[in-house]
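cron nightly-structures :: item 1 of 1
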Amino acid sequence: MNKIDDILNSLQGQQPAIDDSKALTDSIMVNLPERPMERPSRVWMAVRAISALAAAWLVGLFIYQQITDERALQGSTSYAAELPQGTALKDAYLRSMQRGRQQTLSYTFVKKHINENH
């Protein structure tokens, strides 16, 4: 065998014995360099706060959009049956708005109803 392999095999068989673990811990801690606790800069604190606020606002917006879409779909009749074949999404939305519908319409709502019978 190789000399390095012999050394590694002999080291693997040995278990370290610590006489005084408290003294070992203390000597390690004494030798560590002192580092002051650095506070993040005000710019980073502001960026964190703004990004957290934006993320919370976007999650709330997505939840609100899902709730309004589900309510609109639950309370709607077959809107696609009223539209002629090949109606553009914009035209369907404008037609709905002109009829004075009280329910909230969104892009996904109108698109789903146009594609319902096609």
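cron nightly-structures :: done
Residues 42-74 form the longest helix (33 residues).
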